């Protein structure tokens, strides 16, 4: 069960210079306003009632760009199919064939990350046909997409030791952070990967990245990989689920 399209998003004419980006409807007004100032058009994800309430709007549990297509959980497909039709998105939309539901690990269906031909996926996470063309790198952490801020094919930031080790073994330069500073309502902590997104060599954070206790290390790592950063509000860094740009 999901919210209807009309209740979740307001579609207006999108300027050709703007990039539509799927975000949680729970983002704050300052984040939305700053996304618009950065030439993004925020579009809201649906609420999935089969997911725990604190992650029910998280885009990175619902939709994933993979191999030039967008994969969507079965119980979100009708919403995004209408969504893509209204926006006239040319990139194919594929039904993953399984719903995304709580509890773990069925909520991790699309919470994966790719680096080249490697698909980093939780050892207990569901497998779908779209994953078959990749070399699987299985890790203990099921919430891979949430746990990884992918900067490029050769660099990433994470708080998870197991993911960091696995990425290093496939040649990815990894910055391992301490777990805890990212806020997620209803949970002990959130993840850096769910607290923003990277697009066109720019990292956008939901909150002020400079409040992170390891900001200096993060800033140096981003600079090393020629990634600029932008804080989208003055609030505490918050895990709303990784945003999904449509391009």
Residue stretches low in confidence (pLDDT < 50, at least 5 long) are 1-14
Category from helices, strands and their pairing:
alpha/beta
Q: Gyration radius, to the nearest Å?
A: 17 Å
Q: What's the CATH architecture?
A: 5-stranded Propeller
As for the number of domains, it is: 1
> What is the highest CATH level, the class?
Alpha Beta
**Overall number of strands:** 15
The third-level CATH topology is L-arginine/glycine Amidinotransferase, Chain A
Compose a concise summary of this entry.
This protein has helices at 5-8, 29-37, 77-87, 144-147, 161-169, 215-224; strands spanning 19-23, 40-44, 63-66, 69-72, 93-95, 113-115, 118-122, 135-139, 148-152, 155-158, 173-176, 196-199, 202-205, 228-231, 244-245.
Q: What does this molecule look like?
A:
The chain is of the alpha/beta class. It has one domain (5-239): L-arginine/glycine Amidinotransferase, Chain A. It is 19% helix and 25% strand. The protein has helices at residues 5-8, 29-37, 77-87, 144-147, 161-169, 215-224, and strands at residues 19-23, 40-44, 63-66, 69-72, 93-95, 113-115, 118-122, 135-139, 148-152, 155-158, 173-176, 196-199, 202-205, 228-231, 244-245. A 3-stranded mixed sheet has the order 2-1-15. It has a 3-stranded mixed sheet with strand order 3-4-5, with helices on one face. Strands 6-7-8 form a 3-stranded mixed sheet, with helices on one face. The chain is globular and about 45 Å long.
